Amino acid sequence: MALDLSVSSIDLTRQLCDLPSESGDEKRVADDIWAVLEKAPHLELFRDGDAIVAKTNLGRDRRVVIAGHIDTVPINDNVPTRYETLDGVDYLWGRGTVDMKAGCAVALLLAVELAEPTVDLTWVWYDHEEVSDALNGLGRLTRLYPELLRADFAILMEPSNASVEGGCNGNLRAEIRTHGLRSHSARSWIGDNAIHKAAPVLDILAAYEPRQVEVDGLVYREGLNAVGISGGIAGNVIPDECMVHVNYRFAPSRSAEEAVAHIRELFGAFEVEIVDLAQGARPGLDAPLAQEFLAAVGGTPAPKYGWTDVARFAGLGIPAVNYGPGDPMKAHADDERVAVDQITACEQGLRAWLTA
Amino acid sequence: MALDLSVSSIDLTRQLCDLPSESGDEKRVADDIWAVLEKAPHLELFRDGDAIVAKTNLGRDRRVVIAGHIDTVPINDNVPTRYETLDGVDYLWGRGTVDMKAGCAVALLLAVELAEPTVDLTWVWYDHEEVSDALNGLGRLTRLYPELLRADFAILMEPSNASVEGGCNGNLRAEIRTHGLRSHSARSWIGDNAIHKAAPVLDILAAYEPRQVEVDGLVYREGLNAVGISGGIAGNVIPDECMVHVNYRFAPSRSAEEAVAHIRELFGAFEVEIVDLAQGARPGLDAPLAQEFLAAVGGTPAPKYGWTDVARFAGLGIPAVNYGPGDPMKAHADDERVAVDQITACEQGLRAWLTA
């Protein structure tokens, strides 16, 4: 059954959520989105795998990308969706309602509706956001078709409670290792305890005072944390290795290289292996388009703490913000649910700006 | 094929090792030992499961227990045994040669040979030493038939390089836990990192100076070590629990209760769960029989650091020492092997003492 765009953005969200599209299984929902876009004569379409790009070509002097991913994390008995009311708030409950088919629905409705927006638009619906970086559909588009995404400003419809969250922190993970020598624990003086040697690693982490860094007017909170620790062979053996898995979230004013150097300096006495590294994105709220967008949708912009795909736009030199319905704390939760008035708010905010 | 006792204690060791008897599978070797003991008219036999007791009843005013376990840890391509020479030393190689069929062979040969020892003897061969405490054959005998083991002195033929190792350290294992609160690591300030809270646990362990305690003339080295550490849920989650697995080896002058109190005091700020506890055994070398035994076998007695079943005799009020062929560092090793002259030395040492 084809998508019905004669309904509200809330009901369209529900239609999209009730078409399961776990990462790697986005074809059907991509086909359905393509089918409705094809009927809009003002859009030029492009598809790569299950990533779809729809562009207006009105000759406006400015262009804006509005993007959202169509995949979800695995369903856990939370599809089909249902409406529910909690404490007087109306929600649409189910997988994908927050992350991020509500955003996709708003974008789809406006893409078809707005034949003559005040700026040229490049709408993007993409695949594989919830899995490894190498598979990410937006990453694939930026690598293979950077010209296709050329724009002056980008909006990523990641859940942000229908308010603007600028940029994002960078993300680094490292494995810090200590080494020792095994022995029987009845003769521990023959060995060399690698877990004991990890004491200063934990001391450094426990004493660390994360920075709060103002970047382009927003204050980013950093974080340095052990997210895992492991060591030990058996109850009677002195362990010869201990590994502390460290996660560093760093402000977008710090480059990935600077973040690595900071970690290597902090843990200079230990073996450090960087296992994941993604630069952050500056909020770019000083861009004229960003200022106009902020004025149109209202509210006070906040920093985005988690890493999101806005960093891919930042990597292309495009200022980008997060703006979408849904509480990010409910993303991936079994009780994932979006307050339906946030869907309406985003729809109205974007329409107001794009038609002003 | 029945055991052939006309050979040397070395060759008898080989016969016993080539009859596999991993813990739980001791029946055949127990049957074979029983069969040769049955032919010795000076011995009164008793059997419980695969534990065998053979007693002389000569009316001597003193009685000595000589015991060894007949089970081994799992075979790992190291049976059948073979003779080999390394750096000019002749070895018998294979599973059980050290731990502890060489000791069992010496005991079996002497049990049958010595019809009129200078003290009454209670020979014990028992099962399930290499597995859980609840299954231990000597433990079962001490619980069910304490009178059967009544004696003035005990020798456990645990590998000790054919020299006397007195008593043993106690052994305690504890799980030290810290607790926190989960959150997404992009918003770590909402959570409470349990791994960071474990820093002082490792600091205590790293700074701890283990005691060296003289007990009845022997100096026991203690040890306090992390033998394991674990914590963490995922690379982007602040962990809400961390567990440090601690092993405390304590001198036999310290009771099990005192050891527990020491650990609870050291880690008073943390959740402490005692998961294993075994009291040590004083060396008992001041006992007259021990002095005579030491004089007969010669050498300088040393402390036993690992926990052994001598503690079970200590629990019955019987002074007990470890004395057996084989390097304890080779016990359980894939290249387990016993220097054959240590087998002969133990045989001669015991015979000299028991016939003096």
Q: What does this protein look like?
A:
The structure is a homodimer of 356-residue chains. Chain A has ten helices and 19 strands. Chain A has helices at residues 9-17, 27-38, 97-113, 137-144, 194-197, 199-207, 256-266, 288-297, 310-315, 340-355; strands spanning 44-48, 51-55, 63-69, 82-86, 89-93, 120-126, 153-156, 164-166, 170-179, 183-184, 212-215, 218-221, 223-231, 237-238, 241-250, 271-278, 302-303, 320-323, 337-339. Chain A has an eight-stranded mixed β-sheet, with helices on both faces. In chain A, strands 13-15-9-16 form a four-stranded antiparallel β-sheet. Chain A has a three-stranded antiparallel β-sheet with strand order 4-5-19. In chain A, 51% of the residues are buried. Chains A and B meet through helix 5, helix 6, strand 13, strand 14 and strand 15 of A and helix 5, helix 6, strand 13, strand 14 and strand 15 of B. Strand 13 of chain A pairs antiparallel with strand 13 (223-231) of chain B, so a sheet runs across the interface.
Task: Summarize this structure briefly.
Two copies of one chain form a homodimer. With 356 residues, the first copy, chain A, is of the alpha+beta class. Chain A has two domains: 9-168 and 281-355, Aminopeptidase, CATH 3.40.630.10; 170-278, Alpha-Beta Plaits (2-Layer Sandwich).
- Uncertain stretches of 5 or more adjacent residues of chain A: none
How far apart are the first and last residues' alpha carbons of chain A, in Å? Answer: 35 Å
Oligomer description: homodimer
State mean pLDDT of chain A (0 to 100 scale).
95
The CATH architecture term of the largest domain in chain A is 3-Layer(aba) Sandwich
The rounded Rg of chain A comes to 23 Å
Q: Specify the CATH homologous superfamily of the largest domain in chain A.
A: Zn peptidases
Strand content of chain A: 25-35%
Task: Note the main sheet of chain A.
Answer: 8 strands, mixed
Shape verdict of chain A: elongated
The total of helices of chain A stands at 10
Order of helices and strands of chain A: HHEEEEEHEHEEEEHHEEEEEHEHEHEEH
Number of domain units of chain A: 2
Strands of chain A, total number: 19
